[in-house]
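Hello Y.,

Per our agreement to keep a running log of every chain we model this quarter, I'm adding this entry. I've kept the format consistent with earlier entries: sequence first, then predicted structure.
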Amino acid sequence: MSNKDKNLRTQMRKRQKKKKRKLLLYILIPLLLIVGAVGSYGFYLVKKAENVASKSFEDDGRENGSEKREKDVDPEQDNVSILFIGIDDSEKRSSNGSSPQLSDALILATLNKEDHSVKMLSIPRDSYVYIPEQGYKTKINHAHSLGGPKSTIETVENFLDVPVDYYVRVNFNAFIDVVNTLDGITVDVPYEFYEQDSQDRKGAIHLTAGEQTLNGEEALALARTRKMDNDIERGKRQQQIMKAIVKRALSLDSVLKYDDIMEAVGNNMKTNMEFSEMRSLMSYGMQGDLDMESYTLEGHDSYINNTYYYQLNEDSVASVQDTLKEHLNIDEDTSINASDNNHGDMELANPAN
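Predicted structure for the entry above:
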């Protein structure tokens, strides 16, 4: 091979290397920019979440957490439970702006780290249960109006015999804002109905039967209505809506909306979770598809002193207790039996509805 040919080959190799370098730069520079932007956004979200957690934190009034725990739980390692308390704090429903309101929705969720699963139990708002802080039996939704989250937590622990590690209390504004921020959620509406909106305007919301995308006001109407069925079916709808929110929030196109979601929730939420605990639970939700199961409590209608109550079926309560204890991996021997804490059938003399 002549020197001329060798020089030509050398020049061609150099040109090819330059082209490869340029090609790598064209590919790497956008990737680096994307990674940098994602990293910056991620850092921003962490700081935002920390700020939200700081503003939303409210001690539950228990000195050492749940009495049904032998030691403090770590959501990074342990199975934990969260009680979601939905509150309607509209001016019309609040008799006193400084006092707690009735809880409109109660959902106890247990999270199992090993199975990566969530079990959700809807508790009917009219359930006739013992309120430890007050010393009598009445509707469970009164526990919050009589003693806030602490009273509600202790009441749930007493009749279910499982620990409540954390609580999250949100009002209807948070619910509406989150759904709207996610550009709606897709759910199957079971029947056509008319319902009032969050401002109590009668018949303002009209939904037809079938799968559809609902905005915040529509989703709230579906969660609240009891005109066509009962509290049990209402609880099932609330669980369906929660699943739809989680599914939508974990979708790829919702990632850039987390900032607005946190803003909406942060302004309308109180919780006893520290930021580090929240972060552990957020990572739990990001690990992949969650196995989510829903449960309800069976019972029957009852009237005491001309006031309606929902009498819980003892066998149904016992079955749910066993399911939740197993999911939380709680040793039966270390648990206080709820049947020992029924305190008879003491009633409220003139209970409110």
